[in-house]
């Protein structure tokens, strides 16, 4: 079965975006091989805010080179032909994706989307890149919810000071 991987950058104080949704604080490190990272996925799932931020910058989900699913109860599929809008039943849709043949699935952006899929028991791995900055506020890495134990898998440190941590999600949440 395909794995659902939450791969995200966070500030040292635990924010995935600044107070206004900005992410200009994410350091670009030339030693990180994004091609290698992207090759492990053929599908991306993202929340509406992440998708709309991408559009505001004039970027297209096609740039990812993957099939993209956007969790939204407000977007109209007819107006967003480059992606598949999942208005309800996100957990069921992701379970179907996981069962289909293909590469792993990238859960790209959206702490709320991550939390809902984590609490549905669908997230398999969490890959967090800690950026050497303290934002002091913003969008949290993980919204409140149940406790989930993680098992350490790997870590890497880059010349820019970015530290990437990889964990496997335990199957049973702790209350």
Stretches where pLDDT is under 50 for at least 5 consecutive residues are none
Tally of strands: 10
What share of residues is helical? Answer: 10-25%
What is the C-alpha radius of gyration, as a whole number of Å? 16 Å
In the sheet with the most strands, the strands line up as: 5-4-3-6-1-7-10-9
Oligomer description: single chain
Write the layout of secondary structure elements.
Layout: E1 4-11, E2 15-17, H1 34-39, E3 41-47, H2 48-56, E4 67-71, E5 84-86, H3 90-99, E6 104-107, H4 111-119, E7 125-131, E8 139-140, E9 150-157, E10 163-169
Parallel strand pairs: 1-6, 1-7, 3-4, 3-6, 4-5
Antiparallel strand pairs: 2-8, 7-10, 9-10
Task: Supply the key terms.
single chain, about 180 residues, alpha/beta, eight-stranded mixed sheet, two-stranded antiparallel ribbon, 10 strands, about 20% helix
Describe this structure in words.
The chain is α/β, with parallel strands linked by helices. The protein is built from four helices and ten strands; from the N terminus they run ββαβαββαβαββββ. It has helices at about 35-40, 50-55, 90-100, 110-120, and strands at about 5-10, 15, 40-45, 65-70, 85, 105, 125-130, 140, 150-155, 165-170. The strands form two sheets. Strands 5-4-3-6-1-7-10-9 form an eight-stranded mixed beta sheet. The chain has a two-stranded antiparallel ribbon with strand order 2-8. The longest helix has 10 residues, at about 90-100. The model has no long low-confidence stretch (mean pLDDT about 90).
Outline of the structure:
The protein is an alpha/beta fold and 175 residues long. 19% of the residues lie in helices and 31% in strands. The chain contains 4 helices and 10 strands; from the N terminus they run ββαβαββαβαββββ.
């Amino acid at each position: 079965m395909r794995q659902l991987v939450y791969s995200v950058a966070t500030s040292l104080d635990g924010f995935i975006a600044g107070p206004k949704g900005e992410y200009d604080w994410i350091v670009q490190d030339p030693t990180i091989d994004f091609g290698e990272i992207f090759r492990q996925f053929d599908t991306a799932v993202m929340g509406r805010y992440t998708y709309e931020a991408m559009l505001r910058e004039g970027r297209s989900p096609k740039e990812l080179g993957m099939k993209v699913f956007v969790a939204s109860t407000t977007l109209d599929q007819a107006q967003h032909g480059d992606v598949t809008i999942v208005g309800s039943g996100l957990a069921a849709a992701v379970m179907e994706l996981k069962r289909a043949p293909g590469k792993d699935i990238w859960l790209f952006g959206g702490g709320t989307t991550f939390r809902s899929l984590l609490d549905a028991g669908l997230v398999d791995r969490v890959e967090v890149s800690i950026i050497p900055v303290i934002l002091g506020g913003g969008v949290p890495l993980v919204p409140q919810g149940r406790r989930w134990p993680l098992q350490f898998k790997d870590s890497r440190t880059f010349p820019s000071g970015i530290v990437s941590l990889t964990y496997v999600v335990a199957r049973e949440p702790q209350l």
